[in-house]
Structure formats: C-alpha cells, structure tokens
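#struct-pred
JK: can someone run the complex with SN-glycerol-3-phosphate? inputs below
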Amino acid sequence: MIIINFKLYKNTFGKGALKLAKICKKVMDESKIEVVLAVSPVDIYKIKKETGLKLYCQNIDEYEDGRWTGWISANQMKKAGASGTLLNHSEHKIPPGKVKKILKNKRKGFEIVLCVRSIGQAEKWALKTKPDFIAYEPSYLIASKDRSVSSEKPEAVKRLVKMCGKIPVLVGAGVKNKKDVEIALKLGAKGVLVASDIVCADDPEKELKEMIEGFKKVC
Ligand code: G3P
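RT: done, structure tokens with the ligand placed:
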C-alpha cells in the first residue's frame, strides 16, 4: 500500500488535485498496487466521484454531528467518500487526549492511520489507542532530498514492527525511490507514505511508477 499525501501544495487542491489523482489512478490500474490518496477535505467528494480511488483525509476532529461550527467529523468525511484519515501527522499535531477520543469513537469502515514521530510515542500512548495503522515518520526527514526513513532509521522500523504486532506499520519521510520502498517492506512495513517526490515532481507518473517497482520486487 502506498499513501500519497497531497498536503497543501499549489497543485494539490482543486483542479490540480483532480489532475494528479487521475494520474495516480492510471498507474494504480496498471500496477495493481494499492494507492490511497490523502487529500484536502474540500476535494474528497469530487475526486471520489470522478476516480473512485480510495481516499483518506489528512486529519479529522473529535466531534460528531451537532453544534460544531467549522470542525470536520469522521461521519461527514465518510459520507463525502473518504475511507479513513491520517491523524497526528507531524504537520498537524494533536494532543494524545484528543487522539484517544477520536479512536474511541472510531466508526466502522473508517480507517485511522495514526502517525508517530518517534518509537517512544508509539510505545508510550499511540499503540494503546488501537489504530488501524501506525505510520512512522521522523519529522526531520520529511521532504529530505538525500535521506529517508529507510536509509536512516532501519533499526527503529524493525523495532516498531515488532512492537506493533498485529497493527500494520507504514513508514514515510524522504521516501523517493524503489530502493526506499524495498528496504521498508523488507523491514516489515506494510507500505509507505509519500509526498514531495510525487506531488512536487515534474513527472509524477514516472516517480510513482518507479516507487511501485519497489513493491513488485518484494511482494
Ligand atoms: O505523510 C507523508 C509525508 O509527510 C512524507 O513527506 O515529502 O518526505 O515524502 P515526503
């Protein structure tokens, strides 16, 4: 599984998001490797309608239906077409108490990918919340041009995989080629999270295809 985090670049919302999503769909259809897009809540409905791809939000709030002006609920996102969400991404940190509340009220059919920046976070509180996935992203490696979680943190990934047991682990930060993917999978990760290498590329199709090669070699 590869999650492409669209973040909030100029080309990753509105028309740009749809264009990029269509490119990702083409590659996914050809490769049969699962690609999930984490997009802005504003774009979920349209991208789902036009591509049918599996989509995640980049974050949700702890509230459900009711008097909650301006907040985003899991129910609302599920109805719009999202299959889940990232949570506690290092660019959208959330206090552990809020994470626990969201996980406690988790809806069926709405997956939560809980992001941690360190193994300590996973150990201390994140694992206890029982998310669908734990995503390990050391923040200092995000968008790195020459290093990645795979090249810099292999021991940590291995430890985390062991610690998580049945909860699948995803890794991200600086992932940019098939070698990074291969290493991550060999260490026991079930997939990767990627952003800049694909969404900021002149040729996102080429970059995504290359990354998918890493899955084909290991899977
Ligand atoms: O959520 C994925 C993201 O934070 C990784 O970003 O640019 O290092 O692939 P990047």
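RT: quick notes.
The chain has ten helices and eight strands.
The longest strand covers residues 111-116.
JK: thanks, will look after standup
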